[in-house]
Amino acid sequence: MGEIFAGRYELVDPIGRGGAGAVWRTWDHRRRRYVAAKVLQQRDAHTLLRFVREQALRIDHPHVLAPTSWAADDDKVLFTMDLVRGGSLAHLIGDYGPLPPAYVCTLLDQLLSGLSAVHAEDVVHRDIKPANVLLDATGTGRPHLRLSDFGIAMRKGEPRLTETDYVVGTPGYFAPEQLLGAEPDFPADLYAVGLVALYLLTGRKPDSRALVEAYANGVPPAPQGVPEPLWQVLGLLLHPDPEARFRTATGVRKALASAVELLPEDAVPEQESVEVFDQIGPLPPGFGPDGPEEAKGFGPGRPGAAAAPPPSPSDTGSFRLPPPVRAPHAPGSPDAPAEHAPAPSWTPTAHASTQTSPVLPAWPHPQPAVRLPEDVHVPQPPPARPAAPPATSPAASPAHAPHHSPAVRKPGPPPKVAVPLLVFALLCIAVGIWALTQAP
């Protein structure tokens, strides 16, 4: 089975790898579902600080894949996020090549929607590229993408973790001002969105340097495979001058919605031919749709597992102790258990209708619990005898009639002697009173 991380996350199999760590399909024992976990590989202070920044980002948006929780175990750290199974835009281009313009507009609108939520938190992503835009496995239905990987994202105004003349990100998706050492800003993210759009429409990675040179005399004509209405939007996104670009993702969405209405009608039916497959392989042996197959997460080597042989837990989570060894009782004695009746496990009380919990006697030397076969009968300790016999109804059967103890003799003379003495004493008192009344 997989490695248990921080007593909660069980690493199943790797599904991706990035610059700062590997991404694993992981079983969350607390939430009882599969998640994606990014495990940090490097442990230097610089990388840990970036990790803290990334896991601290909490953006709840349907098109943003932000971290949901994190954990640390010894010298390892990870954070988790939803498991997205459809691969990335890079996988989609690898399967189909250039995509239909109408389909690309749907993807761009969702990407810009998520990016607007990121920018609303004053966060600059700084690494928008096809590999960081993931897709749910929707088949031939409407696509659903998630913007992911905020490893180098930063809030505006926060101190930079790199030198001023050092650029972080993916080569080929830098904005021109980033190469000049400008502070990260929203227009740089929008420039990267324009490069992603060209990649989806042409099926190949854009040449960013040649693209900048093409703007020497203004906005160049639309590249091959890009409809003119769509290029009117992308041409402004890809302008080398950040002041000439759109300023917000919301503004790009509005312009894109107008461009979609001007697209050729034959571009819409082709959208149904694109299918987003499940890019994550089957679960490895020992794991099923509902988690680990061996005791659902509590087998050998898992948290909470006991050493073999395990004790026998009861329905309430406690443990059954073995019955004590007692000397056999003489047949017919009151303490002898019934021959075929199970011994009660608690002392009966007068309130028979109230359910009580079993009370086990405190034996001086408890032994390890042992699970016995069902066909083996072990006599249980007899119940404690009550101080007074419980009241029974007259309709009780003779077999269950209570046992009456013999009457206990009280101190003093028997009635045959006491009654005559009492009568004689009364006569004496009467004679004495009569004598007193006759005295002169």
UniProtKB/TrEMBL annotation:
Residues 379-392 have a biased composition (Pro residues). SUPFAM superfamilies: Protein kinase-like (PK-like). Pfam families: Pkinase. InterPro entries: Kinase-like_dom_sf, Prot_kinase_dom, Ser/Thr_kinase_AS. Residues 278-412 are annotated as: Disordered. Signal peptide: none annotated. It comes from the Bacteria. Residues 9-263 form the Protein kinase domain. PROSITE patterns: PROTEIN_KINASE_DOM, PROTEIN_KINASE_ST. Residues 346-358 have a biased composition (Polar residues). Its EC number is 2.7.11.1. The chain crosses the membrane at residues 417-436. It is an enzyme of class 2 (transferase). The keyword Lyase does not apply. Keywords: ATP-binding, Kinase, Membrane, Nucleotide-binding, Serine/threonine-protein kinase, Transferase, Transmembrane, Transmembrane helix. PANTHER family: MITOGEN-ACTIVATED PROTEIN KINASE KINASE KINASE 20-RELATED, SERINE_THREONINE-PROTEIN KINASE NEKL-3. This is non-specific serine/threonine protein kinase. The lineage of its organism: Bacteria, Bacillati, Actinomycetota, Actinomycetes, Kitasatosporales.
